[in-house]
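Chapter review: from sequence to fold.
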Amino acid sequence: MSISRRSARRSVRILGVASASAALALGVSSSAFACNISEFSAEATCDGSNGVITVTDQDASGTPATISVFLESNGADAKQVGDAQSVKGSKEGTKVTFSEDWAPNATYRVRVKVDSGNIHIDRDITPNLTTPSTACKSDESSSPSPSESATPSPSESASTPAESDSPTPSASESSSTAPAGASDNAPSPAVGESNLAETGANSNTGLIAGVAGALVVVGGGAVWFGMRRRGANSGS
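The token string follows.
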């Protein structure tokens, strides 16, 4: 009888130890898979020339959480960045982004809220997020400035030679006009000579006058010879 009692007591003890171990293991495993604020992180990055704030949830249990981001100023909320976003974490990490043109060395508060079953979290990610000391670079503002500075200089340099070349043709035209005037003056004597020829003041005038004088002399001689002949006939 006493041996059976001892064996029963040992059995009860063994069962109690096993139950306690199982409960402890279950508690540890459940706490290990439960959502925890330490599984959330935030950083400020650049998406091209735009600033973004990225929050990563590495909760392997995939418990839904709500993320809100606030800009801090003198220890108080200056504004809320966008709207609150929901996220389900994963072991690899699930990310949500908030578009924000953040300034260098700015401070943001990231709030995490979880209300699922026995898990209740309403805390900030600590420490607060501080943005980098250099803002996101804008490619659009840097690229036009060289192009604008490059384009005016060639245009101005091109326009200057154009203006300097334009007087040269005008000078050549003026020089070409001058000989034209000289060529027009050259034929003018010929025109004058033609006018003189029409009025009789030509070199042929002397020849005509000589022929006329000869005809006058021949006519006078003929008249004189005729009158003499008549006198001789009347005397006989």
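Two observations follow directly from the output. The beta strands are 40-47, 50-57, 64-73, 76-80, 85-88, 94-99, 107-116, 119-124, 129-130. The two ends are 234 Å apart (CA to CA).
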